[in-house]
């Protein structure tokens, strides 16, 4: 398991790449009611969540090391408890957002994410929180923000029927270990942790490429939406004699004229 702190410059670049990806993908969304890989969330809900998270991250940074997030993690609660509490917070914040279109929510996200980026370099080594006796710095939490932005960029892409892959998935593996200490990460195949371009395939024996490991560890399926496994009932067809063309050769059955996709 990778325990080396991620390189600062790579984290800063990855953070900006994530914000840029969300902004660019959101500009291509034509249907904000489209479903996303986030259960029960449409694209509009996802945009609202991004706004809420960016505003919360900015608050945590400004209040470090005494933020409400730090106080939550200081309880040394089980991971399941932390997940439930954060899920309730996410739902509550999303519920009280004013009605606004998706692009407006993404603009608010971009503003807060930019303010966070302006402040974090000077606070990089400040304690952000302490979890089970280990100190995690602001720089560690920036890594968590990188993971958040790139995962939600993928969500937006999938909602449009497209795909997305970060430039530096290996960085996200290291950032996960330091920025999301309460959640385990799926095993990454040898050689995939440090890959910069993310072009490696699936590994062996349950080990996955770096980006797929991050997706699955976050509860996502890399092939969302999953294909429908139930077989479709086939209508019974009457047996007919083939039509004859003027030349006497059988004509093609119209039901087979188009190739299946």
From TrEMBL:
Keywords: Isomerase. Residues 17-157 form the Mycothiol-dependent maleylpyruvate isomerase metal-binding domain. Residues 214-261 are annotated as: Disordered. SUPFAM superfamilies: DinB/YfiT-like putative metalloenzymes. It holds the Pfam family MDMPI_N. It comes from the Bacteria. This is Maleylpyruvate isomerase N-terminal domain-containing protein. It comes from Actinomadura gamaensis. Residues 234-243 have a biased composition (Basic residues). GO terms for molecular function: isomerase activity.
């Amino acid at each position: 398991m990778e325990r080396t702190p991620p390189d600062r410059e790579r984290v800063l670049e990855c953070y900006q790449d994530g914000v840029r990806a969300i902004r660019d993908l959101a500009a291509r969304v034509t249907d904000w009611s489209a479903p996303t890989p986030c259960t029960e969330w449409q694209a509009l809900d996802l945009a609202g969540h991004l706004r809420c998270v960016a505003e919360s991250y900015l608050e945590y940074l400004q209040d470090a090391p005494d933020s409400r997030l730090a106080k939550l993690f200081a309880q040394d609660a089980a991971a399941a408890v932390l997940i439930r509490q954060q899920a309730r917070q996410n739902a509550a914040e999303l519920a009280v957002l004013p009605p606004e279109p998706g692009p407006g929510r993404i603009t608010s996200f971009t503003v807060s994410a930019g303010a966070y980026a302006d402040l974090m370099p000077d606070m990089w080594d400040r304690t952000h929180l302490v979890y089970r006796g280990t100190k995690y710095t602001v720089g560690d939490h920036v890594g968590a923000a990188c993971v958040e932005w790139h995962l939600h960029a993928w969500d937006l892409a999938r909602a449009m029927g497209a795909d997305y892959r970060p430039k530096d998935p290996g960085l996200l593996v290291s950032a996960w270990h330091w920025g999301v200490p309460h959640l385990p990460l799926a095993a990454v195949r040898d050689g995939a942790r440090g890959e910069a371009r993310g072009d490696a395939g699936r590994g062996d024996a349950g080990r996955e490429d770096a980006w797929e490991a991050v997706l699955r560890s976050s509860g996502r399926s890399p092939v969302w939406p999953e294909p429908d496994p139930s077989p479709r009932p086939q209508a019974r067809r009457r047996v007919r004699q083939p039509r004859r063309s003027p030349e006497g050769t059988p004509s093609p059955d119209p039901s087979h004229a188009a190739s299946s996709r």
